[in-house]
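Letters spell out the chain; backbone shape is given numerically. Take this protein:
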Amino acid sequence: MTARSMRQTTPTRWVLADGRELLFFDLPGRRCAPVRDRRPLPPRDTAQSELRFDRTTGEWVIIAALRQDRTYKPPADQCPLCPGPSGLTSEIPAPDYDVAVFENRFASLSGSGDTPLPESGGPPLVPRPGHGRCEVVCFSSAHTGSFADLPLPHARLVVEAWRHRTRDLSARPGIEQVFCFENRGDEIGVTLTHPHGQIYGYPYLTPHTAATLRQAAAHRAAHGTNLFADILERETAAGKRVIERTETFTAFVPFAARWPVEVHIYPNRPVHNLLDLDAAELDDFTALYHTVLRRLDRLYPEPLPYMAALHQYRDTDAQREGRFHAQVISTRRSATKLKYLASSESVMGAFINDVTPEALAATLRGLAT
């Protein structure tokens, strides 16, 4: 079976003991059979996070003290993301599953609200409810492995789950941005080793997205063209930072990479988010993203710790200049050394990269997949 056999998936919906939603996405010919979640969980409190406005930067900060109690590096036999056929041991009460998505029990954002946040933050020193949605995406029922280890049709199912959740969350009142991402590796701060990612539905545009859109608007005003399209055209023409180019996508190390390992994947035509991609493009994106992760895992003797992100925008006046792209970054700058975000990066936001983008691209081009 190839990735192109994947079609739009309707998930099986389930409810956990405390009322959180759980969805199962199945490979063709399979059907998950969940059982009742019998854990004695306390009632949910959707008011445990709040938003506070930093007037020195004009940015919102999420305060979520409940995350101090989240599960931290449990033994493999107590992993909450492994199947729980008894309904007593896991966040996923089922004997097996392919891909599962559920509301995060220790969510940074939770609860619903359709009142827009005030641009100026509202009254000083007054917190606002931390409305939004945080979900966990389990790539596989297997406790070990990674996205790069998944068979291509299974990886494509994960992408389909991202697409489904993007559509769902984008349509909810009060959600301004949907962010699908993965953190992998102890060096990144991962507390659960089971292969998984997360999705955040923010009630505001994140600082990075807002800054990117301002740059894109300024570029349009100055040149009459789209910033992302021009970046792709110039990177393709230069060639020396391109890792791989297919009919529909291009993977490259950006000219001004901030991280010792950083790869971007751009679609070759303008799209805003996963919903704009057709089935063939989704297949090609899955294959190239999968290939990039496999190359990165061959950089050093041990698998690469990384953060992976999907940058998505809406087709609205405020976000129309944005273009979908994927980004993978790592703090590892050699086989034995990490890049720490010290004062220049963490306080001043002035990044210093110890690796030239051209050298990284040449290395990645030479690695087998």
The chain has two domains: 12-204, 209-366. Residues 1-5 have pLDDT under 50 and may be disordered. The first helix runs from residue 152 to 170.
